[in-house]
Amino acid sequence: MSGAREYARYELLRTFRNRRLFIFSFGFPLLLYYAIAGPNRNVHNLGHTGIAATVYFMVGLAAFGAMNAVLGSGARIAAERAVGWNRQLRLTPLSTRNYFRVKVLTAYAMAVMTIALLYIAGVTLGVHLKSGNWVSMTGLMLVGLLPFAALGILLGHLLTTDSVGPAIGGTTAVFALLGGTWFPITSGVMKKIAEALPSYWLVQASRVGLGGHGWGTTGWIVVAAWTVGATALARRAYWRDTGRV
Amino acid sequence: MPLRCCPVEAGIELQGLKKTYHSPSGPVEAVRGVDVAVHPGETVALLGPNGAGKTTTVDMLLGLQEPDAGSVSVFGGPPDQAVKAGRIGAMLQVGGVLRDLTVRELVSMMAALFPAPLSVDRTLAMAQLDGLAERRTEKLSGGETQRVRFAVALVSDPDLLVLDEPTVGMDVESRRAFWTTIREADAYADRAVLMARGVVVADGPTTEIKALVGTRKIRATLPDVPLESLEKLPGVTRAERRGEAVVLASSDSDASLRKLLEEFPEARDIEVRGAGLEEAFLQLTGDVEEVAA
Fold first, then answer.
1. B96–A contact, CB cutoff 8 A
2. How far is A167 from chain B (nearest CA, A)?
3. Can you tell me the mean pLDDT for A179-196?
C-alpha cells in the first residue's frame, strides 16, 4: 500500500509538471465562463430556472472543466501505453485496484483545481452562496465525476494517442451539450435523454448550490449505474490491454 | 504473499507453447511449440532473427500474453504469482519511459512498488546513470533511455531478469559498455537458445553462438580489394573496411587466412584475434538493429 502511495505521489508530481496540460485544462473553462457569463451577469432567472446566469454557468463550466480534466486522464494513459509503460507496470506487484485508485486520484486533483478556479471566477462576477451550499454542491459534483473518471481510464486503454484526443473532445462535447452545460434543458425529449446521462446530474449540482434539492432517486441511480458500468468496462479494457501498442 | 514459496530447483519451464495472431492478411503462427527449461543461476540468451517469435515467447513467459496452448511455470507457479511477489524484472523490447520525472524519481517510483528493492543509488550506479540522476527523462538520448529502462528492470532486485533487445538504439560504445555492465553483474549468458520461425532450432552452450557469428577477427592491410570478394573467403561471416585495412569475422580463421594469402598475397600487417562473447553479442544485436532500421 505504501508503494501505491509513492506511485500516487509521483503521478501527481508528473501531472503538475505538465504545463501545457495546465494551461488548456484550466484556461478553456475560465475563458468560456467570462465570455458567456460576463455579458449575462444581470440575468437572474436564466431560462426560467430561477437560477442566475453567473451561478448557472459557473457550475456548468466547473462541471465541463472537471469532466474534461478527469476524461483527460485517458489521454495520459494512452501516452503511457504508447511508450509501453502499461506493460512495465504490469510486471510490478501493483494491483489493478491500486492502479485505478491512483489514476482516479490524479484525475480528481485536476478536477478539484478546475472547480476551485471556476468558483473564484464566479465570485469575481458577484456569485454569493452560503458556505454550506458551496460544500454540498462541490460534494455532489465530485460524486458526479466518478463515471467520467472510469470513462477516462476506459478510453485510455482502448485508444491510441492518435485517436484519444478527438474521442475525448467528442465525448466531452456531447456530454456537455446534452448535460445542459451551454443552456438549460428543461423539457421534451432532450430532457429525457439528458436525464439518462451523468453529465446532466453533474450540472444539476447547481440546484444544491442554491439551497434546492439534491439529485433525487433518479439522479443517484443514473450516476451509480454509469459508474458501475464504466468501471466494469474500464477494468476489462485494462486487463485485456497487455499487448504491444 | 509467500516470497519463498518454491523449491530451490524450480526455475522457468515453458512447455509446448503456441501462439497465433490474427492479422488482416490471415493468421500468423508466431510461436509454434516451444519447450525450454531454465534452471536457477543459469543465464540464457534467446536469439534469432526478427519474427522468430522471441518477443511473443518472452511475453508469455512474463504472463503478458496467454498462450493458445502449452504451459508456463516460473519459480514453480504461474507467471502472475512471480510478478505479484516482485520476483521478475524486465526490460521489454522497444519502449520509452514516463516523462515529466527525473531519472532518480522514476527509478524511486518503481522501487516503491516492490517488496525488497535495491537502493536507488546503487541501481543508478549499476546502470551507469550517476551523472544523469537529476535529468528529466524526456531529455535523454536513446541510449540513455535504454539505461534507465535497465535500471527500472534491476531496481526490484529480481530473481528473474529478462532483457529483450536491450541495446537497440544504443551507439556502439554504449552497447559495449552495456554488455560490460552485464558481465560485471555476473549475468553473462552461458547458454543460448536459438529460435527461428516460431520454434527452437538450437539450444546449447554459448560457445556455439561464437561459432555462429564468427569467433575470430582477422585484420589486414589490403587496399583496393572489394569487400564482396573477401566475404566469399571460406569461413568469413562479415567483412568491413577501415581505411586501408579490412577486418574479417571468421568462424574458421585458419581456412580464411590460407585462402586470403593465396588470393591476395599483397595482404600485410595481418593480425588474428579471438572475438569474445561480447563481440558475438554486439554482432548479433547489431544485426537485429540493422533489420529493424
1. yes
2. 23
3. 80
Element (H, E) at A184: none
pLDDT band for position B287 (50/70/90)? very low
Q: How far is B225 from chain A (nearest CA, A)?
A: 45
Q: Which of B1, B59, B113 sits opposite A7 (nearest CB)?
A: B113
Angle (CA) B285 B290 B293, round 5°: 120
Q: What mean pLDDT is reported for chain B?
A: 82
Confidence of residue A10 (pLDDT cuts 50, 70, 90): very high
**Probe site for chain A from B64, B81, B87, B152 (most A CB atoms < 10 A):** B64
- DSSP letters for A50-119: S--HHHHHHHHHHHHHHHHHHHHHHHHHHHHHHTTHHHHHHTSS--HHHHHHHHHHHHHHHHHHHHHHHH
Contact A3 B113 (CB under 8 A): yes
B12-206: CATH topology: Rossmann fold (3.40.50)
Each domain of chain B, given as residue ranges in start order, spans 12-206, 216-274
Q: Per the CB < 8 Å rule, is A90 touching B86?
A: no
Contact yes or no for A84 and B108 at CB 8 A: no
Class of domain B216-274: alpha beta
A20 min Cα distance to partner chain B (Å): 12
pLDDT digits (tens, 9 = 90+) for A198-222: 988 888 876 676 666 778 888 999 9
Q: What is the pLDDT of residue B289?
A: 33
Give the start-to-end residue ranges of the domains of chain A: 2-240
Question: The C-alpha cell of B166 is what?
Answer: 536491450
Q: Which of A4, A6, A83 sits opposite B97 (nearest CB)?
A: A83
CB A77 within 8 A of CB A213: no
Whether B111 and B155 have beta carbons less than 8 Å apart is answered as yes
- pLDDT, tens digit, 9 for 90 and up, residues B46-86: 877 777 888 899 999 999 999 999 999 999 999 999 999 99
Asked whether the beta carbons of residue A10 and residue B108 sit closer than 8 angstroms, the reply is yes
Q: CA nearest B176: which of B236, B239, B245, B128?
A: B128
Question: B-chain residues within 8 Å CB-CB of A10?
Answer: 101, 105-106, 108-109
The string over A157-194, giving b where at least 16 C-beta atoms fall within 10 Å of a residue's C-beta and e elsewhere, is: bbbebeebeebbeebbeebbbbbbbbebbeeeeeeeeb
ipTM value of the model?
Answer: 0.84
Dist. CA A244–CA A118, nearest whole Å: 40
Residue B283 has pLDDT above 60, yes or no: no
Nearest to B86 among A83, A93, A243 (CB): A93
